[in-house]
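Project outcomes to date are best conveyed with an example. Our students and postdoctoral researchers have been running inverse folding experiments weekly, and each run begins with a structure described purely in tokens. The record below, which covers 146 residues, was selected by the lab manager from last quarter's runs and is presented without edits.
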């Protein structure tokens, strides 16, 4: 039972950590970020199993994390107010060619990063953007002016 509790705490901590880090950082993994994720996974594994290499410990830890992920997914699907807490909401970054600086700073996105993403979407100027939205996945969607 101890493994189940440690797995539940580890899941909750990782879920909280991903919400704090921010969606933009998680959407573009650099090599260092990938290495840190692997290290984090190893640290979590050590904390969850406490050197318990038994098959029972593996099944309990993995099963607990899987069940919690299914529960979060179900809550996210079923209840709209919970969805806003678990997944967040899309955030408007540009409206009618005007950059919303407050939202950029809140999400720690520079104007240069936004302009780079616009260029990658075949838009040469933010003034040509009707809306730019930071999606819950961390990607930025651009809707050009007509």
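After processing, the design step wrote out the following sequence:
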């Amino acid at each position: 039972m101890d493994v189940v509790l440690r797995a539940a705490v580890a899941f909750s901590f990782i879920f909280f950590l991903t919400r704090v880090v921010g969606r933009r950082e998680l959407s573009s993994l650099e090599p260092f970020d990938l290495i840190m994720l692997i290290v984090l996974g190893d640290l979590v594994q050590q904390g969850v199993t406490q050197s318990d290499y038994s098959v029972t410990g593996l099944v309990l830890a993995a099963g607990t994390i899987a069940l919690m992920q299914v529960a979060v997914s179900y809550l996210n699907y079923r209840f709209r107010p919970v969805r806003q807490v678990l997944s967040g909401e899309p955030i408007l970054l540009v409206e009618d060619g005007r950059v919303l600086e407050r939202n950029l700073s809140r999400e720690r996105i520079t104007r240069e990063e936004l302009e780079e993403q616009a260029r990658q979407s075949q838009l040469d100027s933010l003034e040509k953007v009707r809306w730019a939205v930071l999606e819950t996945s961390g990607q930025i969607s651009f809707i050009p002016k007509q």
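The first strand starts at residue 91 and ends at 95. The helical segments are 2-21, 23-27, 31-49, 55-78, 80-86, 101-106, 111-120. The training component of this project remains on track.
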